[in-house]
Write a structure and sequence with these properties.
two-stranded antiparallel sheet, single chain, three-stranded parallel sheet, alpha/beta
Length: 159
């Protein structure tokens, strides 16, 4: 749903400790037709562009509007590492959910076709009719925390 106060999609950041029910809650929120769910992109999705934006967010506590849009657009893309079944029918998606499940399984098993998966199941970049749900977990020994993240820095970050 479009955030009418800013004219952009909303970011729903769901943070919690492991085994606290965050994945279950994210699956419930993901069943809504206007939500794109990204499962643990801070720990599972790495690229030079994303890592530099995250580093800037950690050090400065904020991102420019253009950088924010770039990060959100990247997290909205259908990366097989961050999309998790069950897949629900989405308004912005033309392919049925069963096809997304079949393609996701094939990419996970073979390690091939991730670019095609991303192309087929990502929403259009100019489509702002959906919200982005990002779910991640935090624990002292996690990769995210060892990279300098803390719950206070995540909360302080201005979107």
């Amino acid at each position: 749903m479009l955030d009418t106060t800013t004219g952009s999609r909303r970011l729903i950041f769901l943070l919690g400790t492991p085994r606290s029910g965050t994945t279950w809650l994210a699956a419930i929120l993901n069943s809504y037709a206007d939500v794109v769910y990204s499962h643990e992109p801070l720990t599972q999705l790495h690229s030079p562009a994303i890592d530099s934006l995250i580093a800037r967010l950690k050090t400065e506590g904020r991102l420019s509007s253009a950088d924010r849009d770039l990060l959100l657009n990247e997290w909205c893309q259908a990366h097989h590492q961050c999309r998790r079944p069950p897949f629900f029918r989405k308004r912005f998606q033309l392919a049925p959910a069963w096809l997304q499940m079949a393609c996701w399984t094939a990419v996970r098993l073979t390690g091939r076709g991730s670019a095609l998966f991303r192309h087929l199941f990502s929403p259009a970049l100019d489509d702002l009719s959906y919200d982005l749900l990002v779910k991640d977990t935090w624990k002292p020994s996690s990769t995210a925390c060892s990279r300098g993240w803390s719950s206070s820095s995540a909360i302080r970050a201005e979107w």
